[in-house]
Amino acid sequence: MESVLEARNLVKIYSEFRLDNVSLSVPKGSIKGVIGPNGAGKTTTIRILMNLIRADGGEVSLFGLGYRDKEKEIKNRIGYVGEEQYFYPNKTVGWTGRFVAQYFKRWDENLFDSLLMRFGISRTKKTKDLSKGMKVKLSFTIALAHHPELLILDEPTSGLDPVVRRELLDLLKDSCREEGKSVLISSHITDDLTRIADYVTFMHQGRIVLEAEKDDLLANWKRIHYKTGALGENLLSQLVQVEHHMFGSSGIAKNYQALRPSLAEGVAREDVKVENVTLDDVLITFVKGV
Questions:
Q1: Furthest-apart CA pair in the chain: how many Å?
Q2: What is the SS3 assignment for 88-141?
Q3: Could you tell me which residues come within 8 angstroms of residue 3 by beta carbon, excluding any fewer than 6 positions away?
Q4: What is the pLDDT of residue 175?
């Protein structure tokens, strides 16, 4: 499958943190979510991918091009939204659009206006008077108004209320479906990525600990509830994060589809129940080192 972004063996060393041989790719036309707790290395990785900081090792290629001699062309094909929004506070939304437009060959003023209208943002309002949610919406508007092929988003919905988050996520899905855009989005809000991601990459302590298609991952990771004595030692040994309760026990299976036939009898007796997990459950499993 063709990729719009390839990163290989990225290393970045700080005094108290090391990004350790991170490799990832973004298939064309897909949404890939990067999940991890604070301090996992998500932002460091994205800053390297945007050439905002230099890696101490490894390589980055976007659209088959490298930053060394093609940075301007690459940046013209990327829309970027970070966790923090920076604008000239005393300038209006309209002025901000005109200022940014000069840096992009494919800037579309009509699209900029239509997105402002969709989000209910006035061109005449000063950016300092916008709420946090409106500033993020303006950042998305700017990121999309030059028809990027790839969107790179670093915790863009952090601190936003659920209504605004849903609105932005729906916009991302629409952009991918209708225009074939590719998206790399980092977040610790796993519900957001459950809603939109095709692929997920889990990071912990500067490393990638798991990559998978989201649907395959959630089909294979299941929480198994069972009564005492309902499972044999072989099945019990394949569960992680086992917890014991007053009326039974539970644990997470990472390969449910393979275990399913062995669990069928217990399910039929109602001694065993199978429950879907969330991406949070998967993340916590790795953070706990299970």
A1: 69
A2: CCCCEHHHHHHHHHCCCCCCCHHHHHHHHHHHCCCCCCEHHHCCHHHHHHHHHH
A3: 25, 26, 27, 28
A4: 78
| Range of lowest pLDDT (140-154, 168-182, 226-240) | 168-182
Query: Are 161 and 132 in contact, with CB atoms under 8 Å apart?
Result: no
For domain 3-213, the CATH class is alpha beta
Q: For position 290, what pLDDT does the model report?
A: 56
Strand partners, 257: none
- Looking at residue 65, the DSSP 8-state letter turns out to be B
- Copy the structure tokens of residue 261: 């036939």
Rounded CA gap, 169 and 151, in Å?
13
Calculate the alpha carbon distances from 197 to 27, 50, 114 in Å.
12, 21, 25
What whole-number distance in Å separates Cα of residue 186 and Cα of residue 170? 16
Q: Is the pLDDT of residue 62 over 60?
A: yes
Q: Categorize the per-residue pLDDT at 246 as very low, low, confident or very high, splitting at 50, 70 and 90.
A: confident
Give φ, ψ of 65 to 5 degrees. Answer: -115, 160
With a CB cutoff of 8 Å and minimum separation 6, the contacts of 156 are: 81, 82, 83, 136, 139, 140, 168, 185, 187
160-164 average pLDDT score: 84
| Cα–Cα distance measured from residue 154 to residue 143, given in angstroms and rounded to the nearest whole number | 13
Global confidence as pTM = 0.91
